[in-house]
């Protein structure tokens, strides 16, 4: 028959009050520890998961960010190294909100130093503030590069002098702190050097030094491409050409063999030398009718003489002619001809000069920069996918036919503009791919969302499981043991002698139970006496003076 609640509560109270002091303390400690553990687990399960909001913050930026988070009622934690932690579900939202307020500022100050000039600032202080602002602006600009996490810029700008002999050029030093696992290439180092040198008047690139966080000098490294006459821009152009041809080959072959079943690599040899040539050629002269006249000069002279006096007027002209000089023997008809020539003379002269244009061709040829000298293409095509047979089992991948390989080879040649005179080469190979061509799917147990949800669920299950064990595995058995009904003590002779069975007296079982209860009570009293005696002994050892005074008092009273 079940006990009423009041009886059960009374029995529990009586049972607890009858327990020894040591057991009472043990029970209280276990109960308090269980309650505290359950409460702590519930608080722990409700604690948010903290993630890094910002790291490597300066003291000024950390103070500004924490003050803003306090205004926004956002819980946060701080760690060494300027690391700030916030609940994981608010990380990106807080970054956007803080960025809208210009936080963090990055530690380095820029030209905002010049926004509020101080009264009474000297020229030296003004120049120093300008230099600090310029250093901060350069640091912020360099930090925007991908591999660079933080940067410091130090400028040494000498004071200008009117004496040319004492003129000094400015110098600069840049310290870059690279991100974990990142490296900076020589092209980016050269870009930093030219960025700093272009920002400071009269600062040459040779006076700029770039150092990383390990103390390695970066600006002194020689770029092998630059030493070979190939700068970073030319290298990028070469990679663009090779990538362009590779994409074209993959795009033309993929519809035939399937997506992901073709790989192409292109090697291009480019000529970046600048060449200019001037050619002047002369063709054979054409016929006079087809030629162009450049200049023409004509001369025509007609001279007719009669019996009139000729010669220069003067004394010599009026004198008589001299003696004859004719020969003794004159041929017949000679006088007639001579007399006729002396009496009459007729002269005719014609001269013509024609200059024709020459047929000349002048050609100025300048070779383009980055001209393709040679192209080499290597293409790998996967085997044809396995197909199911008549028995329903998957067969093995099969290679492509020679006709298909010839077709792919021709397509690749047409795609790259194959030129045998240029020395181009194309190599197409058919081989089985060892990698999985199917799209890799993230398993459920690796999905970040599922992992986060599983962690939360596991945390809650752990809390409830431990609380269930504490309540039903520890506290409940202890309470059940305490709530057992107290034994009823029977005193012999209280109701007369024992009656026999059926007469309403005590049975043997009741007597045994009474004896057992009496024995338990005696043992309990003896145990309490032993514990009290032990405590008295311990007290006497620890306080002998007090015990001696008590004994003297007892003896005096007696």
Number of E-type strands:
13
Overall structural class, as computed from helix and strand content, comes to alpha+beta
Average pLDDT metric: 75
Approximate shape:
elongated
Helix-residue proportion = 40-55%
The strand line-up of the biggest sheet is: 1-3-2
Q: State the end-to-end distance.
A: 57 Å
Distinct helical segment count: 14
Runs in which pLDDT lies below 50 for 5 or more consecutive residues are: 336-343, 489-507
**Binned strand content:** 15-25%
Radius of gyration from the alpha-carbon trace, in angstroms: 59 Å
| Largest sheet descriptor | 3 strands, antiparallel
The H-and-E topology, N to C, reads as HHEHEEHHEEHEHHEEEHHEEEHEHHH
How would you describe the overall organization of this protein?
It is a single chain. With 558 residues, this protein is of the alpha+beta class. It contains 14 helices and 13 strands. It has helices at 5-18, 21-46, 59-71, 91-100, 123-143, 186-199, 224-227, 232-257, 315-318, 334-343, 402-416, 448-482, 508-542, 544-557, and strands at residues 50-54, 77-79, 83-87, 148-156, 171-178, 208-212, 262-271, 276-282, 293-305, 345-356, 360-366, 371-381, 425-430. It has a three-stranded antiparallel beta sheet, covered by helices on one side. Strands 4-5-6 form a three-stranded mixed beta sheet. Helix 6 links the parallel strand 5 (171-178) and strand 6. The model is unreliable at 336-343 and 489-507 (pLDDT under 50).
